[in-house]
Design brief:
single chain, mainly alpha, about 65% helix, about 0% strand
Length: about 950
Amino acid sequence: MASNKPNKLAFLSMPAPASYVAGLGRGASGFTTRSDIGPAREGPSAEVIAEAQAKRGEEAEVDPEQFQDPDNEYGLFAGTTYEQDDEEADKIYDAVDEAMDARRRARREAQEQIELAKHRAERPKIQQQFADLKRGLSAVTDDEWENIPEVGNLTRKKRRRDDRAFAVPDSIIVGDRSKNEYENSLDTRQQEPGGFETPADSGALTNFVEMGQARDKILSLKLDQISNTTSASSSGTSTSVDPKGYLTSLDSVIIKSDAEIGDIKRARMLFDSLVKSNPKHAPGWIAAACLEEHAGRMVAARKLIKLGCEQCSKSEDIWLEAARLHNNEDAKIILANAVQHVGQSVKIWMAAADLEHDVKAKKRVLRKALEHIPNSVRLWKETVNLESSIVDARVLLSRAVEVIPLSVELWLALARLETPEKAKAVLNKARKAVPTSHEIWIAAGRLLEQQVDTVADGQLPKTEEERNKELSIVDKTIEAGVRELRRHQVLLTREQWLKEAERCESEGSPRTCEAIVKATVAMDIEEEDRLDTWVGDVESAEGRGRVGTARAVLAYALKVFPDKKDMWRRAADLEKAHGTRESLDAILDRAVVHCPQSETLWLMSAKEKWLAGDVPAAREVLERAFVANPESEQIWLAAVKLEAENGELGVARELLVRARTVADTERIWMKSAVFERQQGQISTALETVSAALVKFPKFAKLYMIQGQIHQSRKNNAAARASFAAGYKACPKETMLWILASRLEETDSKSIKARALLEKARLVNPASDILWAEAVSVEERSGGAAQAKAMLARGLQDCPASGLIWSMAIWAEARPMRKARSVDALKKSKYDPIVLCTVARLFWQERKIEKARQWFDRAVTTEPDLGDSWAWWLKFERQHGTEEHREIVRSKCVAAEPHHSPMWQSVAKDVNNRGKTIKEVLEMVADALQ
């Protein structure tokens, strides 16, 4: 039976089938060991597996998704190329899919909404379930709300209590047992040596009160002893403590950190190595001593500096440092030793003198020093400064200049102490001793200038001729000094000489300053560059506040160029700003003599005399101006204004008639019409304008005056005809278009006003005034949206216009104005109108100082805009003092503004004829809103 059973292990002796891989059926095609990480051998390739499956009669597995992805074609179409036809086919299929999806989309989305609603109805959210109850809470009253009970445990379940028990230790039980027990007997060991016997004498009790008092007394004595120490900081043996503020002083104690202590230790080692390796190096000893001082070890510092003084006895610095580290008395001893080693050191002697508190002791030290160092200028100066007697100081200085004849300072100091006559002799000696010093020559000139103003007792004051004669000696002295210095090869630059001139001016010697400028201002300049160089000198000197130097340079330049009108104008402006009225009149009188054809100088001279109240002198100046310039329009008009302002209306009218005959300019005809209009002669004014238009048909202001006269007489048709003729003759004059537009607007014809402005913008593109007027028309007609649209168009056409940007800022809502103002400042390049607008924004925000600064900035950028001055005055009325308001008024009067819309409308009003700038300013400030 056993032989008939099949052998289960017979396959082990059979050959392996083809492509057999051991363990492949259970997935174990290789193994890894600790020494060989990774597969022991490669698995069969895909071709081998396919061949084995084919021999066994198995079919290869096919991926059902193999042909489903059109973008990843493999298998059947794996070797094909994706061409343009394929791309077109894919697009067509995509379009078909999208169309099919769109056809079913509405039905699908509706079905989804139905299913979602059904789901929410079956399983609503908790929030939806309580929605009606939440809405009902709105009807709950406050009392009902307050009566709602607090949340408690409503589950009716008893909570578990923590009933755990612990065993109490025996020590607690024993201790608690013996806590309240009392001992009734003594231990036998306590009774053997005699009980608790005390070592106190005779059993007396200790008085703790007396012990406390004694302790307090000792503490107070120590504090008093410490507080009485006066030399604590210098001696280093004790510390000064205030017993009352002892705890407070503890706060000021510097507690060094570990890192700082470590740094000090390292530095100490370095300096120790330094002084040992190079003991003759004085800075090393000084640094080591300073380190110990910084660490608070004054005793060590003094020991180190003492060793340093022994090693480097010829170094003055180490002796000075040693004196500093000791108290006053010890420092005197140290410096006394120092002069034994470095007796020629001025610093040592000066430090020794500083240690003395008595003047006599200081003098003694300094005189001793002069015995060792007689050629020290500093020691002589300090010695002279200690003398209270002028005679003693003079004696010392006389000896000093004998010992040190080359010291200019000592010569000048001696000259200042001598009488004027002796001072001359001293300066002459100094000039011979030091021929290369320019300070001596300048001092001589200043001495001569001072002598001119001094009058001896009993003598009469010097006349102007005598003073001028003596002052001319100052000029000769400085000229001689410059020549002598050149002879001795001392060549100072003209900039250095000008600095000396400014110094003389600052020290109260204006004539010496002028003499220096006369003698040196033309040095080292090319002939063609003289004028520009001198103008630069004047501007720089005036900028530094040296008016005398600037005046002297101008005076010299006017001698060289007497026919330069700009130089005379600059000199007049300088005198007007810094001089007197007499000096200004003198300059202008000289100016009109040298430049008789300059109308500006004549007018300035007449105006200054008129402002001074001398009307006859102003008339005389204008008469002389007529002789020199018979056809000058400005002089004729100035004469008319002078007579009209002083009430001579007939003379003014006669002058205008003569001016129309002699000069016959368009401006004179216009002023004639304005004069007649101001006097109420409307018909004469119209006749004058008509006659002027025949001669000057291209002068726009004549049309404006004619139209305004007709408009004031309620003759709108004639005014309309005048303005129409004006903008036809002068289409580039924007004001004519604006006046015509305003006439139509007052006549309730806003459409025609808009049309005129539109036509004006076509003729005058990029005109910000026309755009601003168009915006104003829309605002006055109530069209805020149209105004904003017009503003946007205006900004596109005039992106850098400050006027349009200012209107754009105010058109914005208040929160947006600040951001809009930043854009306006950048785009308009800080236009003065925008600056004024920003100041008004700060005014609205109650930022007073910022608003004041921006108003000042606006009027400084363009002082001719009168509205900016009026806004500033209006601001100061509300937030400033009377002093602030007066500053604004005075600055405005000095600037003399003429432009800005509101300013011109008020200043040129017929009813405001003859008003001053200050009055016009007040009226404009009242009219602004």
